[in-house]
Amino acid sequence: MMKPGIGAYNEFKQLFEKYSAEAGKEQYLIPYFISAHPGTTDNDMLNLALWLKHNRFRPDQVQGFLPSPLAVATAMYHSEKNPLKRVTKDSENVYTVKGEKNRKLHKAFLRYHDPKNWPILRDALKKMGRSDLIGSGKHQLVPNSQPSHGKPRPKQKKHRQSRRN
């Protein structure tokens, strides 16, 4: 395993809250998420989406991974190998998201709450054998159907009638 599990975040959050309270400071912890990072599978993203929903996180901005010079993740992206261990032709392969469709799926998992992402998520969940996560229940990730696309009616201004005595 290349990345720490979500337990590392939970431990850090507890320490952060403890020491913030001891210092008498009101501070906030804002997680930063990157979609389509090398080494991250569709199942990893699904589990993260479920964790986000369970913890009532609804990220508005999500960065998609872009390879950048001199980064270990870029080496993983291009070689599809784990550069943290000796790299040989037989060394550990790293799953890498490269296709646009799969990159969009990973981003959609992080933005599970956006109705625009529900169709791609429903398709993926069915393919992953996780149709149980489609529906309106608390434990489900996305609803069965899209909201109606009717144009919202413009709000009418309330006109005050003047009262004359």
Strands side by side in the biggest sheet = 1-2
Instruction: Write down the secondary-structure element order.
Output: HEHEHHH
Mean pLDDT across every amino acid position: 88
- Helix percent reads 25-40%
Model description:
There is one protein chain. It is built from five helices and two strands. It has 165 residues and is mainly α. It has a domain at 35-68 and 97-129. The protein has a two-stranded parallel ribbon. Helix 2 (42-54) links the parallel strand 1 (34-35) and strand 2. Helix 2 (42-54) packs parallel to helix 4 (100-110) and helix 4 (100-110) crosses helix 5.
Give me some keywords for this one.
165 residues, mainly alpha, two-stranded parallel ribbon, 2 strands, 36% helix, 2% strand
SSE layout and pairing:
Blueprint: H1 6-22, E1 34-35, H2 42-54, E2 63-64, H3 72-79, H4 100-110, H5 118-127
Parallel strand pairs: 1-2
Kindly summarize this structure in a few lines.
With 165 residues, the protein is an all-alpha fold. It has helices at residues 6-22, 42-54, 72-79, 100-110, 118-127, and strands spanning 34-35, 63-64. The termini are far apart.
